Amino acid sequence: MATGRNHRPATRSRGIPEATVARLPLYLRALTALSERSVPTVSSEELAAAAGVNSAKLRKDFSYLGSYGTRGVGYDVEYLVYQISRELGLTQDWPVVIVGIGNLGAALANYGGFASRGFRVAALIDADPSMTGKQVAGMGVSHVDDLEEIIQVNGVSIGVITTPGGAAQQVCDRLVAAGVTSILNFAPTVLTVPEGVDVRKVDLSIELQILAFHEQRKAADELAGNGARVPTAARRRAARADEGPEGDIPAVMPA
Amino acid sequence: MATGRNHRPATRSRGIPEATVARLPLYLRALTALSERSVPTVSSEELAAAAGVNSAKLRKDFSYLGSYGTRGVGYDVEYLVYQISRELGLTQDWPVVIVGIGNLGAALANYGGFASRGFRVAALIDADPSMTGKQVAGMGVSHVDDLEEIIQVNGVSIGVITTPGGAAQQVCDRLVAAGVTSILNFAPTVLTVPEGVDVRKVDLSIELQILAFHEQRKAADELAGNGARVPTAARRRAARADEGPEGDIPAVMPA
DNA sequence: CAATCTTTGTGCACGCGTTCACAAAGGCAT
DNA sequence: ATGCCTTTGTGAACGCGTGCACAAAGATTG
Predict the structure, then answer these.
(1) Matching CATH number, B94-202, of 1.20.1250.20, 3.40.50.720, 3.40.50.1820, 3.60.150.10
(2) pLDDT by residue (tens digit) across B184-201?
(3) Test the B interface: residue of A85, A103, A222 with most B CBs within 10 Å
(4) How far apart are CA B151 and CA B133, in angstroms?
(5) CB of B233 under 7 A from strand D?
(6) Under CATH, which number does the domain B18-88 receive?
(7) CATH architecture group of domain A9-88
(8) What are the tens digits of pLDDT across the range A121-147?
(9) Which residue is nearest to nucleotide D8 (CA to C1')?
(10) Is residue B89 helix, strand or coil?
(11) What's the CA angle centered on B6, arms B60 and A217, to 5 degrees?
């Protein structure tokens, strides 16, 4: 390698698949752990195992960032940590606001992993006047009336919504109007946002329902005689669930 | 969709695509809202709008469940609520345990949406002896020593892990050994589980990093002169970020 | 310097998921 | 009953993501 950096950006920053972007934080976490153990280099096979993915996938993912590996050796851990951090935008500081300081909002405010990597809680905001000024995670709670000013003064572009579902869209609209262009939504609501604003949602109840679906399927399989796969609590449930997924009558029939 | 292991022959779940399963809870939520407003029928177009998806996708999703619509009219709301609930396994009760009663675990225990739909918190478990017996969300905290017994007595097949990252795999192993076959993981760790166990992960820091990536890209676009799309805080950030994504020197160079 | 060994980077094929577009089906008015 | 109008259900095309398998590249050894 003659020069360490002679790649043209034309093909690069535009072409990273979304699926790859979603895995970069995973790689970064594994690499950080290696870095803390002062491991100098790592092969795609090892790193893939640590991140829980296929090694070919990992190599292809890295290939979108550039050719940062050395054949016959592997990847330089420190260098890769830096490259991925830079690609993810973690070399700069991202102030975020959390709106809705209930149980969940307070828990997130206290969450250490928040500040660890480029993210900084700029403000906690709540609509309840009795919350205003209270200390949560060593920080005063602001009233939602000041939302716009807080966003603008701090240059916040990422907002976290932990309000009840009913208030989420309203809060979202205000955040967006004030200049926020990325939203992490914990409220059980489908948010509507203008073009150019990114929303990611975290929904406990959806996750549980997906698990329940698979759990039910497993239980049905057990009942069907495909027993002895894993000694499970599901088997107990299966025995208890008399109505199979196909065996009962709808409570309500269509007209 | 996240198992810790490479091989994933699963996903042939009785013919319903995984992507569809993941959307069913969304439809169910929208339908429940309609049901509460006593709306008798709904078209795929309306429901799709409420759920934030494409109407053709919604119709195809429903087609995997059967032909529950009426051409020229739409879908019977109550009937569909029942069918989806049944498909997701929500007509039965799912006891869950939450392991790790810190800020997040306590917040989840208090979360109303938990019990709302088929899920019931059977126990709160923590490793800290000083937590044992304390009341959280109107429920006593159990010690982790009793984990296996709690799982078995209550027939728990779904576990929620809200421990620190370091303890997650250990807790996971014990849950699985005791019979749990579905795990919702909030700890920032890649869990390794045996075949037949489902893991879904919720990772705040990963979500934020993905948002940061897109945010950085937007800021770069703004700098490049594609201004005037949305009046954003990102523009302020873009102006402030002197080093563009291509313009600085790595802190660490490879050997 | 040449041979060997390790590991990357990627061409290729395959399968899943999404979307379009439309025929079939049912309701409704006349 | 007949024709019109609405909406479903789905065939087909397309694009994305994944994983295999291998050639190229560099390190290493004698």
Answers:
(1) 3.40.50.720
(2) 999 999 999 999 999 999
(3) A103
(4) 18
(5) no
(6) 1.10.10.10
(7) Orthogonal Bundle (1.10)
(8) 999 999 999 999 999 999 999 999 999
(9) B71
(10) coil
(11) 45
